[in-house]
Design goal:
By secondary structure, this protein is an alpha/beta fold. The chain has 8 helices and 11 strands. The strands form 3 sheets. Strands 3-2-7-8-9 form a 5-stranded mixed sheet, with no helix packed on it. Strands 1, 4, 10 and 11 form a 4-stranded mixed sheet that branches. Strands 5-6 form a two-stranded antiparallel sheet. Helix 1 packs antiparallel against helix 2. The protein binds fe (ii) ion. The site of fe (ii) ion has 3 residues, from strand 7.
Amino acid sequence: MQELTPETITGAVLDQMSTTTDPRLKQIMASAVKHLHAFAMDVNLTPAEWIKGIAFMTEVGKICTPARQEFILLSDTLGLSALVNGLHDNTAMEEGTHTSLLGPFYREASPALAAGSQIAKTVKAGSEIVLYGHVSDVNGRPIANATVSIWQTGASGLYDIQENAAAIDYRGVFSTDANGLYLLRTVRPIGYSIPMDGPVGDMVRAQKRHGMRPAHIHFLVGAPGYRELVTALYLRDDPHLEDDVVFGSSGDLAVDIAPKDADCPIKGLPSIRFDMRLSRETAADKAGGRVGADPSAILKQPA
Ligand SMILES: [Fe+2]
């Protein structure tokens, strides 16, 4: 009979899992077990704390619906999503525009809109802006017919699906023209709180964090032969640019709203210009599937 102690249990688990045939699964699970055991040893985890952790993860799972992905929110607020994005950027063939968070609110079912369209169904006076920019390769050569998917919150600080799971608003899919230009109208993004009425909100409050994200607009950009880009622009003058609760805002993604921009294709409105550079696709990118997976696909609506 083997002697299992806190010092020998990790090796026993790794031994038993050593028959895993998928090499990547074997590597990931062995590392996860080693770090999980080291964490429990480090904090001398008690049975009461262990069950509290299980209860927390159970609550995170229970609150998930097709419209709400609390596990992504947990990953985001722990900085794991930003870390994974940084690791992904490090594997790019060329240095394109940096990645930012996909977040829980991207949806594939967004309307394809003509250049210059307004993505908001209702626009409060004074809130309308133009958003435009060029999609190019890393050498500045324009990429025509790139798909530019955009989503953001409305005036309430909520995404459409937070207010009504079936609603589609403040989101759209555009194509770049022959010069790589995308162009649309939207409303000024405003900073907002992440959902605080679930277990992740309880955690953030217990840590005395504010739960705020700086004003931003999400982008998912794709073109054949290029690495799919999931990113966001952030308003430079937002007070939470430096302490985003999900660690998405990063210096080179900060932009300003220009009151007048002579280069803007639509005149008479304030505008944001956000240019993006795509790295060429590697064989691993091609094999790895989409970066911007729709979170609602994880949990389908019950029939
Ligand atoms: Fe967001």
